[in-house]
Amino acid sequence: MSEFFAMGGYGFYVWSSYAITAVVLVLNIVKPWLASRQTRRRLASRLQARGDTP
Amino acid sequence: MSPRQKRRLAGVLVVLIGLSAASALALNAFRDNLMFFYSPTEVMEGKAPPDHLIRIGGLVADNSFREMGEDLTVRFVITDTAENVPVEYTGVLPDLFREGQGVVAHGRLGSDGLFRAERVLAKHDENYMAPEVAEALEAAGYTGHTGDGGDYDR
Amino acid sequence: MWLFFHKLASPPYFYALAGRLIPWFGSICLLLTVVGLYLGFFVAPPDYQQGEAYRIIYVHAPSAWMSMFIYVVMAVCGAIVLIWRMKLAEVMAVASAPIGAGFTFLSLASGSLWGKPMWGAWWVWDARLTSQLILLFLYLGFMALYSAIEDRRIAARAASLLAVVGVINIPIIHFSVKWWNTLHQGPTVTRLDAPAIDLSMLIPLLLMFLAFKFYYATAVLIRARHELLLRERATAWVRKLLERAGA
């Protein structure tokens, strides 16, 4: 198992490139997803405020 | 398509064609500067400026690698199979450095014909295969890929 | 067919369709990634020259391909914006840019981490690496231009022009390794003869490429939906949508 992680001595380079890739790809999904949820909430609450106060 | 859209389409096409032509001309003009290295043949033809920092690229000639002592100084020959340039270098070599393997040396060509490298980079080819496959190919006398390191073993 | 495109271009229809597609594309991407990485790490042999280090290829090459593919998508959308002023093309171009920039950055970063142990340098100014760096600047320029102009439609037009002009860099990146001598090696998979890579290594590579394609589809739809929502927040369909969600 440790042999697998050592990657023939290139473990640092191999795993760093995979880690960077994972971080960037996950961020590029999660950030817009959260932003979109926040926008929906903001718009909905604004709509509600307008609707409740006659 | 409305006449307006046709005009815009023509505009986009003109921009693209003009830009391609301009880029082609510019890239052609700067051709020599875009080359990352000179081949030994070009060096021998005098295309490389003397006493300037230049890069020479080619294969490490078989059986040319010598260790010059204990201070990591090595000598080897860069070849493009037509011409050879002897190289001297002091320092750590990249992992892929082997005889028969692609290499790019950065340094100055002395008047004595010896290229004193300050930096050596390994260049690998576009072939990927299992070690066993490479051995089998070599056993079959297939030389389509650059050699697998020969007798040079770090 | 034409009718379908017209329907697709309608914001509420696109918003709903994208919402249904996202989980599917996301799941396919995850599945392909798991299979691709399993084959790439546990089935594919080490390389005869580079040993285990070559396994960086499974994220490096697909990232680099996607960085160019997404740019072409962006430029085509940009041309549609310039000629036909189509809103959905604006949204798709704008949504693509950050994802493409991400892939471009990843190709440079993973390439650097590959170059250090193999070539002996983190970075060299050869034609391939330099043109790929210019691609990153083009993406960042597109994003900066779009966010610098207040009116989203004018901003999209300005940024689209940059996207179309920058597309000239794509063939330069691809052919840089052929036109000039570079430290970066030539193409492996798109050679006219057989790919110069063992089949057991090629299959996970192509699976990862597909996985990244589905990743792009997932990510671009999430961003496009958000962009659409922001642009159309004052319209009746968004109000209806929010009321339905709130109820």
Structure description:
The complex is a heterotrimer of chains A (54), B (154) and C (247). Chain A has helices at residues 2-6, 11-52. Chain A has 54 residues and is mainly α. The longest helix of chain A has 42 residues, at 11-52. The radius of gyration of chain A is 22 Å and the shape is rod-shaped. The model of chain A has no long low-confidence stretch (mean pLDDT 88). Chain B folds into two domains: 3-33; 36-139, OB fold (Dihydrolipoamide Acetyltransferase, E2P) (Beta Barrel). In chain B, 29% of the residues lie in helices and 26% in strands. Chain B has a five-stranded mixed barrel with strand order 1-3-4-6-5. Chain B is elongated, with a radius of gyration of 22 Å. The model of chain B is unreliable at 144-154 (pLDDT under 50). Chain C is mostly helical and 247 residues long. Chain C is globular, with a radius of gyration of 20 Å. The chains are: A mainly alpha (54), B alpha+beta (154), C mainly alpha (247). The interface between B and C is large, with 45 and 42 residues.
Spell out the key features of this protein:
heterotrimer; A: 54 residues; mainly alpha; B: alpha+beta; OB fold (Dihydrolipoamide Acetyltransferase, E2P); 2 domains; five-stranded mixed barrel; 6 strands
Topology (elements, then pairings):
The complex is a heterotrimer of chains A (54), B (154) and C (247).
Chain A: H1 2-6, H2 11-52
Chain B: H1 3-29, H2 31-34, H3 40-44, E1 54-60, E2 66-67, E3 73-79, E4 84-90, E5 102-109, E6 115-123, H4 131-139
Parallel strand pairs in B: 4-6
Antiparallel strand pairs in B: 1-3, 1-5, 2-3, 3-4, 5-6
Chain C: H1 2-8, H2 11-43, H3 57-84, H4 87-118, H5 127-148, H6 152-166, H7 169-179, H8 199-231, H9 236-246
Q: Please outline the major beta sheet of chain A.
A: none
**Biggest sheet descriptor of chain B:** 5 strands, mixed, barrel
The radius of gyration over CA of chain B amounts to 22 Å
Outline the low-pLDDT stretches of chain A: none
Average the pLDDT over all residues of chain A and give the rounded result: 88
Largest interface: B-C, 45 and 42 residues
What is the typical, i.e. mean, pLDDT of chain B?
83
Number of domains of chain B: 2
What topology, given as strand order, has the largest sheet of chain B? 1-3-4-6-5
H-E string of chain A: HH
Straight-line distance between termini of chain A: 68 Å
Give the overall silhouette of chain B. elongated
Strand content of chain A: under 5%
Instruction: Report the CATH topology name of the largest domain in chain B.
Output: OB fold (Dihydrolipoamide Acetyltransferase, E2P)
Task: Just name the CATH architecture of the largest domain in chain B.
Answer: Beta Barrel
